[in-house]
Amino acid sequence: MNLQITSGMRPAAGWLKRPGRPPSYLEACWLLLAVSILAFGADYFFGGASPALGVVLATASSVTCGLSWLFTRALFQPPNRRQLWAPALVGVLFALWVVLYGVNGSSQHENGPLGFFRSVYTLVSSAMLLLPIVEALDHGGTAISRHEQRFRRQYIAGYGAILSIALIIGLPELARWELPGQVILSLTALAGATVAVLYRKRHPQPAAPQRRPRAAGVHEENAELAQAIRDIMSQQRAYLNPDLKVADIARLAGQPEYKVTRCISGDLGYKNFNQLTNEFRIKEAQRRLSDPDLDDDSILAIALDSGFGSIGPFNRAFKEQTGLTPRAFRLQRAKMET
């Protein structure tokens, strides 16, 4: 199966940037994938017009598998957990393809060293076909909302359907339909990817909390206390109390205050109690700011209803965790709705 189908599998964000704002990492990944997919389609229709044009279009569409994986990582990974090795790997694959294509456009050295590298390139690129599914399934062990779960299931179903059809049309009996089928699948996937970016722009992926390594020798009782603290925050929603203190958590958990403090900064991995409460309060604020029924509520009202005592700390904590001010977050959602 040609590599070009893979990349067609999901990116999004076209119009890309507002004046004065550079494209986000997700939008940049979508743009690269869109260029690759469109180059693949153009190569099918116009690549034979001239050898030079064919080379340019083939080069532009050479790493669609890698770009599909890179886009999916950008779509589902928290923005503060992105790693440079992933785009670097895709860049290496692109460079390797250019070398192999330039040095050995024919098959005369298929059994030599270049043939070996060509096989390695094909194997790695093909393996990347399955990585987007892995990325959509992985949520780093953190809780995700019901809407996010549904979005991920739909993404996996769409990607899986396109991949399955691509495998079917790659059978020898359907060889005449393989290339046109790949073009149709790629363009379909690009449309789906655009929808995925629109969804992510409306429902931003929250930044993951900065966790420190667990202290050595954490006892089982500490693990139980950590779960109790999580339940107090998520189920009892203790964070809505603007005057919440460590002593209140300790009382609800039935444990000494010093143990709760040690568990928060040790087993749970937060820098301090404020970071713990701010994480839950910001998620509550995001939920309220994303609700059209609450559009008449002021930013201050949202802050107070989310557990903050004043607007200043709320604005600072919100931007630190999401990268946007509360007003920009709400305007972005409203703009996508219209």
Key features?
mainly alpha; 338 residues; single chain; 16 helices; 2 domains; Arc Repressor Mutant, subunit A
According to DSSP, the number of beta strands is: 0
Query: Termini distance?
Result: 40 Å
Give the mean pLDDT: 81
Our estimate of the beta-strand percent is under 5%
Oligomer: single chain
Describe this structure in words.
The structure is a single chain. With 338 residues, the chain is mainly α. It has two domains: 4-202, no CATH class; 220-337, Homeodomain-like (Arc Repressor Mutant, subunit A, Orthogonal Bundle), CATH 1.10.10.60. The protein has 16 helices and no strands. It has helices spanning 4-7, 25-46, 51-60, 64-76, 85-103, 113-127, 131-137, 146-169, 175-202, 220-234, 246-253, 257-265, 273-289, 299-305, 311-322, 326-337. Helix 4 runs parallel beside helix 7 (131-137), helix 7 (131-137) packs antiparallel against helix 8 (146-169) and helix 8 (146-169) packs antiparallel against helix 9. The longest helix has 28 residues, at 175-202. It is elongated, with a radius of gyration of 24 Å. The two termini are 40 Å apart. The model is unreliable at 1-17 and 214-218 (pLDDT under 50).
